[in-house]
Design goal:
Order of helices and strands: EEEEEEEEE
Shape: globular
Strand content: over 45%
Radius of gyration: 14 Å
Distance between the termini: 7 Å
Structural class: mainly beta
Helix content: under 10%
Number of helices: 0
Length: about 120
């Protein structure tokens, strides 16, 4: 039996980008095998905005680490906006909410974990 994380919602409380930079982050979520949301590119998010993710991520082993990143234009480094470790043992415990905080940004991720049976 394996587990899968369903990423439900991402809420931007405070973007990293400043007013001079447009007040929106170009965000994506990555995992051990690469980008998991969106399937390619990035999604622009500003303060108060929500993104419905509806993305399933397999948990191979006891847990998976996912990273929220801001994708900057070519030539600039990607910015880390937070990390979450989702455990397979959370299966069946309902929706969880985790804050992804840096000194420059604040996001909230909602997810739940389920078991896969064959």
């Amino acid at each position: 039996m394996g587990a899968v994380a369903l990423l439900e919602n991402l809420h931007c409380d405070d973007p990293r980008e400043t007013v001079l930079e447009g007040n929106k982050d170009e965000v994506a979520i990555t995992g051990p095998t690469g980008q998991v949301w969106p399937p390619s590119g990035a999604v622009a998010m500003g303060a108060g905005q929500d993104a419905q993710l509806n993305t399933q991520v397999p948990i191979n082993g006891a847990s998976i680490v996912l990273n929220l990143i801001e994708i900057d234009p070519p030539g600039l480094p990607t910015d880390a906006l937070g990390t979450v470790r989702i455990k397979a043992s959370e299966a069946g415990t309902g929706s969880k909410t985790v804050e992804l905080l840096t000194e420059d940004s604040a996001y909230t991720l909602r997810y739940r974990v389920g078991n896969i049976q064959f």
